[in-house]
């Protein structure tokens, strides 16, 4: 059965694997569209984890964990040479 929602208006999780290349080509890749996508993502994250009635530290913990992983990936090249290796 065909979907009633146009392909351009579907969210990424609603797109089938066969429709993915055409869905990507329909997206807005100009700078204002990219900034808008990041802003919508930030708003969704903020409203789901930070701006809640009964909040917890989980939202901030996810940001800190992402920062730790990102900084490790950036400095991996330098850290790789400082490992203590033992040859038996």
Structural commentary:
Its main location: mitochondrion. Pfam families: WRW. This protein is mainly alpha-helical and 88 residues long. It is built from 3 helices and no strands. The protein has helices at 20-26, 31-50, 58-80.
Question: Helices and strands in order, then pairings?
Answer:
Blueprint: H1 20-26, H2 31-50, H3 58-80
Shape: extended
- N-to-C CA distance: 64 Å
Fraction of helical residues: 55-70%
| Secondary-structure-derived class | mainly alpha
Low-confidence stretches: none
Helical segment tally? 3
Q: What would you report as the Rg, rounded to the nearest angstrom?
A: 20 Å
The average pLDDT value, as a whole number, equals 83
The number of strands is: 0
Topology as a string of helices (H) and strands (E): HHH
State the major sheet: none
**Residues in β-strands, percent:** under 5%
Pfam family, one: WRW
Protein name: ATP synthase F(0) complex subunit f, mitochondrial
Transmembrane segments: 20-38, 59-77
Keywords: Acetylation, ATP synthesis, CF(0), Hydrogen ion transport, Ion transport, Membrane, Mitochondrion, Mitochondrion inner membrane, Phosphoprotein, Transmembrane, Transmembrane helix, Transport
């Amino acid at each position: 059965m065909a979907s009633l929602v146009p392909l351009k208006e579907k969210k990424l999780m609603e797109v089938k694997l066969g429709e993915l290349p055409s869905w990507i080509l329909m997206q807005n890749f100009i700078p204002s569209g990219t900034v808008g996508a990041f802003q919508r993502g930030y708003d969704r994250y903020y409203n789901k984890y930070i701006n809640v009635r009964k909040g917890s530290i989980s939202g901030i913990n996810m940001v800190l964990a992402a920062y730790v992983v990102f900084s490790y990936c950036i400095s991996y090249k330098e850290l790789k040479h400082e490992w203590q290796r033992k040859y038996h």
